[in-house]
Protein 1
Amino acid sequence: MVVSLADENSEVTVRTGLEACAWAVVHGYDHWALVGGEGARRLGGCVEAIADGRARPVEGRGEGALRAAQGLAAAGRSVALLASGSALAEVLDAFHDLCREGLPVVLLVPSHGAETGRSAPSPELTDLALVLDLPAGALVAASAHELVAFTLAACRASRDRQAPWVVAFELSAVGLSYSAVTLPDPERVRAFLAVPGGSSALPAMVAEDASAELARGVSRYGFALGAALRDLAREAQVSASGFAAEGARDASVALVASGAGARWFEPAFLGKDAATVTRVRVSSWRPFPSVEVARTIWRARAVVVLESLPTAVGSGGRLSDTVKAALADAISWHPGFSGIGRVPPVVALRPSGEVTDPGVWRAALRAVDVGEPPRCLVAGFAGTFTRIAVALEEPARDPVVRAAVRWLAQAGRAVAAFGHEPGAAELVVPGRSAFRVLVADHPEALRWEHRGLGPGSVVLWLGAEAPSEAVARVTAWGARWVALPVGPEHHAAAVLGALTARGGAAALELPPALAAVAGRVARALEPQ
């Protein structure tokens, strides 16, 4: 089944984060090794599907695969390691050997929680905590675009610095989310990676003046990453940064986040609050952009940090503690810092669930706008956003979601789309009221989705027949049943119509036939 709502010649491509990362592995690396873990297995499946004889797999699993990759890296080959979850914990000793030897390998970590076969969204990067204490560079991607850029840049930076690099991302919120990305030309990628890195696969012996050599080595992490990102933008037209700041200059409140949580303070999601705060996104955890962070946020009355790695016992975490350390260095006029006049209070925001609601940030802004802000906030998620759950029969669901995301991206609309499990996808958009719609065409879809439906929710039935027992079950939940049977070629238009209902998104300019279907859906979903 092919569903298209846009010009076939469009350069906008909709991919999941896993698919984008797999593309970068296939076009940027000589070999890849599947160490293990739920997220790594999913990423490995995407790599296998598109490899077509390019990046070659390393035989074996677990520590055996890692040891084989160690030999390939020592021989001068570029190798991507795929590991996550408990499998990553089991090979930490072996990965530490790679760090100690200074081998240029890249570890890709699709971070997730317990390996139960499911992958519900999580705002934490629990797997990243396992490798942050090792001497390796660390990047955290917030989107599929950053994932492509960091996967390629880490390949160059690891060779330039002669040290491993880690690229982590949340499996659900980034890896399984649909994004409109423009992939670079493979020839440009090869030209970017052809630039010579270190002089040899193995690092040279430390010079006589070991202290001076080690001091220079500390700075080389930042130089290697910066040079790789600059060359990537010039050679392959893919731009990304380890640090980004937007919004009001000298604002009273600064918001800091890393990973997928950073997407929720885009102006489209924050609304009018976006103009009154400074928004900082940190993607490079090592080297950490301490100077840039301190220079950007020190004038704020309070700094709110979305804590990706909270401390179990305490009020902070890895990110908020690192931000505090950067401010302390700056106020002490540490070499390399320009110096600041004060240290603002840093408030760690620890979310109590899924980070998909801009209302969390607005509540945090109100909580810290006091004389003595708290050290830690635990945020809830009651806000105004619209969720469209798409549960159509395969193979219809995936093309429908991709087509909807592609059309919204071309129209400049903000949307987050997630595909958590086979047969289940969800689109989240800001709206005037909390609203949930299930778009389905088969009764089995109602079995897994009933937990999210309740009073005020709607089941949009696109199938030919409406089973009476399903209608009765939905009504018992307090939800409303709306039957609008349309052909498969109009399923994507029906999803777009659901997005425009109740202020979920502004009306889109669709071709007449599609606009008619979307308009019918939007009118049918309005409150009775």
Protein 2
Amino acid sequence: MTEKDDRPDASVPSGQPLQPLPLKPERTGGGFWTWLLTFVLVLVLVLAWGGRAAIDGTKHWYGQRKALQALDYLKKGDVSKAHGLVVEASQYAPDQPDVVRASAEFLIQIKQDPRNVAVLLSKLRTEGVATVSDLLKLGRAELELGDRAAAKEVYADIPEIDRDRREPLELLAAIYRSEGKLAESERALRKALEMEPDDPECLLRLSMLDYGNTFPEIHRRARERLWLIAKGEDATALQAIHFLAEDKDLSAKEAEELLKVVVDHPSHTEAHRLEVVSATIRAAPQTRDAIMDREIAAVKSKGPLEMLPVLRWLHEEKQFARILKAVPVNIAVKSRELFPIVAQALGEESRWADLKRLITSAQSLPVSRARMNAWLAEAETHLNPDDVASVQQLIVQSIIGAEQSRDYGALMAAAVVAEKSGNWSLAARAARTIADADPRLQLPMLEKVLEMRTRDRDSAGILSAASELAELRPGNTVYESRLNYVRLVTGQEMEIAAAGIDKLEGSGAAGSPPGQVPTALLRALEAYRFGDLQRVAAELQAVPDAGRLDAGLRAVHAGLLSLTGQVGRAYGMAEQIPSVLLLDEEAAFLARAR
């Protein structure tokens, strides 16, 4: 021990024993950090084992909540408020049943392509969660698509206990109507409507059914009910007014009364009123000039918006000269709404020079350059018919400009001018673009593409358009028979065509839709492609009323007759067939018959 170690501790009073040192105090807060670390570890484990399910469940719940809100707005007809909710719901839970329902109902209310509606509701049906309401909407969508076989399958899924209700019966009536069973359709519809005799819409539709009855007493009672409904104040009253305004038996006195009725309706518009004014003119033609002059005088000093309904009405009545008198040019050139009506009226009155002068004037016009080029192209076809290149250039400029600016009104105008001027390929291009842009116009525009490709004698284009139409409307025998015909007549995809013919039911039989290629002719053409002339002859005997087929089909029929040794009959048929619009392949068959 050193000297230092022997020294007493100065901090301890002398004479007192040494005391043990006090323990260090525990840290406050150590438990919190331990708890937090434990919580984080548990959270990590939860997320690892079941967190994804929890997140998905939350998204599912949130999406369903938004979808139910959207459905509530859609029931009230508030599409604009429903739109954002449907989009939000689809982002969180696109496969949740109520989200699918809301999306489908939204598309129905904005009248979008029924194909998208069918895709959505078919998902619910496949998953076994479709309600009766879902099935009814799906059945109607399938009918709109022209697929009555699919609609019948959907109807079969409706429980029998529900089939005697109004809406399922209405779907059944529509299916019967699509099959041409008009008597069965009317019986089913009448049974459906009679289930709710106090419903104004049911009463209206029953009255409309009875109106067409051949028994005078039933017809008279229906007419009286329609008048009673028309004097109401709801939307059904406006429907009854519209029906009565189109009644060919409406007298002049009744037309005057109906005009008072529509004016007294609290929700009537100028369009409703002017529809009845047209009925008044039809009932008393001698009043036409006085009535039209009166309508023009009432709005002539007003602004463009007040003039618009009357000018549109005059356009529908083909009163183009009156439009040009009613609208000063200095007003028309400043109004986006009025200018197209005036320009169209100039064209309808064959005032092509005035139209060209107006469009090429230095002043700024309230329409797109693409639309002006379409009008100029049409004017040039009349003013300079020999200058084909200039017309074609204007149409091309119109189409390109409309495509770039997505001005589909101008594109439609360009398509019309292209068709009128014989620029089939340009018309097809414009129609094709419109079909891609607007699902509601997809079917008519694709039919126009097919027509233009046919006029242009473009076999590849015809096959492409026919394929798209058949894909767009599966089960439609007209489109499917036409597609298989194009395949066989051009010698392409023959095995596919042979399989497609087997799927056609009753094609070419009595009552087949117009435009459907007879199955017997398709089979004869198929047999020819596979070198079986004996079967060609047998199938040709079953072709119904061959003389009423269109020129191309008759040319093929005549050529096949000649190949099977029926030369005289083939020649007699070929003599009456114009060859100007035939495809090259059809013309080759016609040459065999001659």
